[in-house]
Design goal:
By secondary structure, the chain is mainly α. Helices cover 84% and strands 0% of the residues.
C-alpha cells in the first residue's frame, strides 16, 4: 500500500521509507512479544 501511495503521489519517497522503517521496528517488537509469551506458556 505504501508503494501505491507513493506512486499516486500521496506520500513522498522519504515518507514511504520512514513508514517502512517504522513498520519493520514494530514488527520486531511484536515478534519479541510473541516469543516471550510463547516461552512463558511453555514453562507454565
Amino acid at each position: 500500500m505504501l508503494y501505491l501511495a507513493e506512486k499516486l503521489t500521496y506520500i513522498s519517497d522519504k515518507q514511504k521509507e520512514n513508514l517502512l522503517k517504522n513498520a519493520d521496528e514494530v514488527s520486531k517488537i511484536i515478534r519479541g512479544l510473541i516469543k516471550s509469551l510463547n516461552s512463558k506458556k511453555l514453562t507454565t
